[in-house]
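To whoever is covering the structure queue this week,

Two jobs came back overnight. Logging them here so there's a record in the thread.

Job A:
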Amino acid sequence: MKYELAIVVKPLSNEEIKEKVVVKIEKAVTDLEGKLSKYNFLGKRLLAYPIKNNKEGFYIFAKLNMSPKHVAAFDRALNLNTDVLRFLRVTQDSL
């Protein structure tokens, strides 16, 4: 099933985000037999309210193809990642 993924991560530098966060997300997806495609980095933005003592966040959008039976494990992996402040995963069918 196809999903769209929106992630807000801690305000790190571009290199740190690509090295730390994206690599971990890609590993989680490939471990769960999924496929990530088409990243869109929107950059650092102010948050509407502080999240985990952060007033800014770095926004990343991606397309994701994964079996529905692995989605809960993927959400768990994102929740355990300390650099991820918030995420939203929606099916492309619902858009």
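Job B:
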Amino acid sequence: MRIGIQGFDKIKSGVEPVPAGTYDVICEGGEEKTNKEGTAKYINWTFSILNEEFIGKKLFDMTSLKETALWKLKGLLNALEAPQDDDGFATEDAVGLKCKVVVQVESYEGREQNKITNHLPL
């Protein structure tokens, strides 16, 4: 069955990255995952942009749970002002919290995508 959509040939496939810059975001959640090799864990974070021009556009970041990389996770939690203590934190406590993110555009497997390079307090 053919489905007709006016101007379908002009629609771009895939997700278009936002321009490099600093954006206000709200955390939508973080999910703990294991890498493909099964050797390391990380948290896959989802953020939604609050700036008017790109409001609602999604950005993603990963923070490793390896001891040598916990500085990045700590920086994100501090920027969000998320509750944390000597025993750790709960990803649910970061949901709805806001911060700023510094975003770059990089090429990955032949397509441009966003990369969060820093987290800053709002």
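Note for Job B: The longest strand covers residues 21-34.

Please reply-all if you pick these up so we don't duplicate work.
Q.
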